[in-house]
């Protein structure tokens, strides 16, 4: 199943899974009530498969985890952030196409 390629992030594991990761991590900040977030699910699952081994794709539910979104000033969902070597290198807010996300994740 593809979802196993997508890490589920929490406030508790964010440091270990993202900031200490040895490869780039694309974080998808989302919420259960967010229509565009749900609409992007298939593209994110395909992207996780396409980028397997190169970029880790991870999701963080902003309703269940408040500390990390506050730390990185997440104001709306979906928000995508790319982390490399423990640092935030890029952020995008709003729904993206799979090709836009792929280009974003591999910059």
UniProtKB/TrEMBL annotation:
GO terms for cellular component: cytosol. Coiled coil: none annotated. The keyword Hydrolase does not apply. Disulfide bonds join 34-37. Gene3D superfamilies: Glutaredoxin. GO terms for molecular function: protein-disulfide reductase activity. Keywords: Disulfide bond, Electron transport, Redox-active center, Transport. It holds the Pfam family Thioredoxin. It comes from the Bacteria. GO terms for biological process: cell redox homeostasis. InterPro entries: Thioredoxin, Thioredoxin-like_sf, Thioredoxin_CS, Thioredoxin_domain. The record marks 28 as: Deprotonates C-terminal active site Cys. The active site is at 34 (nucleophile), 37 (nucleophile). The record marks 35-36 as: Contributes to redox potential value. Belongs to the thioredoxin family. This is Thioredoxin. It comes from Comamonas serinivorans.
């Amino acid at each position: 199943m593809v979802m196993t390629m997508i890490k589920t992030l929490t406030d508790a594991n964010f440091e270990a899974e993202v900031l200490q990761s040895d490869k780039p991590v694309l974080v998808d900040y989302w919420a259960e009530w967010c229509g565009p977030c749900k609409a992007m699910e298939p593209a994110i699952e395909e992207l996780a498969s396409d980028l397997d081994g190169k970029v880790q794709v991870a999701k963080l539910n902003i309703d269940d985890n408040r500390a990390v979104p506050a730390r990185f000033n997440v104001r709306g969902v979906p928000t995508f952030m790319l982390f490399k070597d423990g640092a935030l290198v890029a952020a995008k807010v709003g729904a993206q196409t799979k090709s836009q996300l792929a280009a974003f994740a591999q910059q």
